[in-house]
From TrEMBL, chain A:
Record-given protein name: LUD domain-containing protein
Chain ranges of the LUD domain: 86-186
Domain of life: Bacteria
Coiled-coil residue windows: none
Record-linked PANTHER family: LACTATE UTILIZATION PROTEIN C (PTHR43682)
A Pfam family recorded for this sequence: LUD_dom
InterPro entries: FTHF_cligase-like_sf, LUD_dom, NagB/RpiA_transferase-like
TrEMBL record, chain B:
UniProt-listed SUPFAM superfamilies: 4Fe-4S ferredoxins, NagB/RpiA/CoA transferase-like
Ranges for domain 4Fe-4S ferredoxin-type: 291-312
Name under which the protein is recorded: Lactate utilization protein
InterPro entries on file: 4Fe4S_Fe-S-bd, 4Fe4S_Fe_S_CS, FTHF_cligase-like_sf, Helical_ferredxn, LUD_dom, LutB/LldF, NagB/RpiA_transferase-like
């Protein structure tokens, strides 16, 4: 007998009382959606900007290697997406469009279509996600309702810059992934 | 060694024991505060518990559905009845790809299966990439906590370790400096690995996808740079529907560390073009636990660690005192199911105060199961032979009265006892059950006198 059959028949041999699968109610949040979202991102050590603030930040920063896949900032790139993801190792800045953001925790949803290469938002030194402010939802429940049965091979909720507190519980931003997250609401 | 002996060892360093206790309490407190900002918190816990009940009641059919969908998505699905088979499957995949070095993100399951030593014996270098896990790996230690693997270490010790292994400045204990040194060190490993291994937080039956949550981004750095991703998943990690993730992602990070969500929550459905994706579904005692009516609820665990952070014994005795892969209250009900003799003292490493059950996001009746295990172990004590303390043999815990008193006693006393008493190595607060022997005055009298 294969281990598959072994495991499945072991389970089948156990008398298990049936238990119903509950429906999930549509919970809301107490506050206003955009204000809560901004607060959540800040709490996660990210920053929220509008388009003008972002443009002047970008002009002042002078990053040497930038990839923008955002429809709002098509000319910000000075690099093409490479064929081999390893070449992104010294990327300074990635600018990506998010599909929607979740107010209660600041999580922003991106799929293969936005990413181009899956490693992009992780390997870049700094990450910018551009979000339509009308795309904000209140909770994760509404987030998953929005995702519905979309079939992207990869999808990720990103809620802040890479962080760790593994040394004496002191928060350090920039563990392995992006050292900063800026969210541009347009 | 038994839990009380190990706990005594841990308590020898009083200052560190106090720090450990207070730090975990701080994490517990963060969990409390954030949970109170969600009006429907208790509702979410009920829903999570009901969903998991439904999963356990239909585990076989959900697993088959998950497998079918995963295969449709282009994922290779493997089944392993135990840790050995799991390890062999992983090694097979590595050998097929002529791979002798892998990066691995946090997976308690692979710890449970002892994958690292097995792979190393077979000539594969394994690099744990979670910062805390890398630290303990460099020290040749296992994690002491499932969410905070290096919580038993102080920054001085980590600074010394990094000075030796990563050539950081001697005496520089700044966590930012040390973390960034590890970032550079691990970046090289990420760029060089052909195969990356991860655990799985949730597998979704209706879509065949699975979700991995990290704050550091280490799982994603590994798998997206590698050609092959191997994900190791306990069979109980299944959820029926994608939308169930809404409930569980709301609960997981808030319960674990008091943050609203983990920073990276990656949903893997199919491999990137030209790459390979494997899932290993592992039993390793889970079907046996499912068959134990009294203990099957322990399989609802989502490994958030909240029961450890809140446990007065865990905080005062440290993760290693349990001698099991999963320490703390949940570990003490999982481990005896795997090896009752070896882990016979664990169900007694509890005050039965119930705090673990109160914080558990999936509402596992942890302290009741601890009590049930005590019954089982006391019953089979004759077969188990020595290794059990006399007081167990004396049947103290068969008495429902002792059960009732001890819970309340610990709850109250821990608030009023001075540190010197609590952390004193020969004292028993860290050593689970040794305390109640030979009280000079009754607790009631003592408490009345000392309360004010
Ligand atoms: S038993 Fe509950 S509280 Fe403990 S780790 Fe598991 S889910 Fe978290």
């Amino acid at each position: 007998m294969s281990s598959r059959e072994n495991i499945l028949s072991a389970i089948q041999g156990i008398a298990l009382e049936s238990k119903p699968l509950p429906e999930i109610p549509d919970f809301g949040i107490p506050g206003e959606v955009e204000a809560t979202f901004v607060q959540s991102i800040q709490g996660n050590k990210g920053e929220v900007m509008d388009k003008a603030e972002f443009e002047s930040w970008l002009a002042a920063e002078k990053h040497s290697k930038i990839i923008s896949r955002s429809a709002s900032f098509p000319d910000a790139s000075n690099l093409y997406l490479p064929a081999d993801a390893h070449e992104l190792n010294d990327l300074d800045l990635a600018i990506l469009d998010g599909q929607f953001g979740v107010a209660e925790n600041g999580a922003i949803w991106l799929e293969d279509a936005e990413l181009g290469l899956r490693v992009l938002p992780f390997i870049t030194e700094h990450l910018v996600i551009v979000l339509d402010r009308n795309s904000l939802v209140a909770t994760m429940h509404q987030g998953y309702a929005r995702i519905g049965d979309a079939s992207s091979g990869f999808g990720v909720f990103i809620a802040g810059p890479s962080k760790t507190a593994d040394i004496e519980q002191s928060l350090v931003v920039g563990a392995h992934g992006a050292k900063s997250l800026r969210v541009v609401l347009v | 060694m038994s839990h009380p002996q190990n706990a005594a060892e841990f308590l020898k360093n009083q200052a560190k024991a106090k720090w450990h206790d207070e730090t975990l309490w701080f994490v517990r407190d963060k969990r409390d505060r954030i949970s109170k900002t969600i009006p429907e918190w208790e509702n979410l816990r009920n829903l999570a518990s009901q969903i998991k009940d439904n999963v356990l009641a239909n585990l076989g059919s959900y697993l088959e559905q998950f497998e079918q969908n995963a295969i449709k998505n282009g994922i290779h699905v493997h089944w392993a009845k135990d840790g050995d088979e799991h390890n062999r499957i992983v090694l097979d995949i590595l050998q097929k790809h002529h791979c002798t070095a892998i990066v691995k993100s946090k997976s308690i399951l692979t710890e449970e299966c002892h994958l690292n030593p097995f792979l190393e014996k077979n000539g594969v270098e394994v690099v744990d990439t979670d910062l805390g896990e890398r630290i303990v790996q460099l020290l040749h230690q296992p994690p002491s906590h499932i969410v905070l693997p290096a919580i038993h270490l102080k920054k001085r010790e980590i600074s010394e370790l990094f000075h030796e292994k990563l050539q950081t400045e001697k005496g520089n204990e700044d966590p930012t400096y040390l973390t960034h040194a590890a970032r550079l060190h691990l970046r090289e490993k990420f760029l060089g690995a052909k195969v990356a291994l991860t655990g799985v937080n949730f597998g979704i039956a209706e879509t065949g996808e699975f979700v991995v949550c990290t704050n550091e981004g280490n799982a994603d750095m590994g798998v997206h740079l590698a050609d092959v991703h191997v994900a190791c998943m306990g069979i109980e990690k299944i959820l029926p529907r994608r939308k169930d993730l809404g409930i569980f992602l709301r609960l997981l990070a808030r319960s674990a560390t008091g943050q609203p969500v983990t920073n990276y929550n990656s949903h893997f459905r199919s491999p990137a073009p030209g790459k390979e994706l494997h899932i290993v579904l592992v039993d390793n005692g889970r079907t046996a636990q499912l068959a134990r009516e009294k203990f099957k609820n322990s399989l609802k665990c989502i490994r958030c660690g909240a029961c450890m952070n809140t446990c007065p014994i865990y905080r005062r005795s440290g993760g290693y005192s349990y001698g099991s892969t999963v320490p703390g209250p949940i570990g003490s009900i999982l481990s005896p199911g795997l090896d009752m003799k070896k882990h016979s003292t664990l169900p007694f490493a509890s005050t039965l105060c119930g705090s673990c059950s109160d914080v558990c996001p999936v509402k596992i009746n942890i302290h009741e199961q601890l009590y049930e295990w005590r019954q089982e172990i006391t019953k089979t004590h004759g077969e188990l032979g020595k290794g059990l303390s006399m007081w167990i043999a004396a049947g103290i815990f068969k008495s429902p009265l002792a059960y009732k008193i001890s819970g309340g006693l610990m709850r109250k006393a821990l608030k009023v006892l001075p540190d010197s008493l609590i952390y004193h190595p020969i004292n028993a607060w860290g050593k689970s059950r040794d305390l109640p022997e030979a009280p000079k005055e009754s607790f009631q009298q003592w408490y009345q006198k000392n309360r004010s």
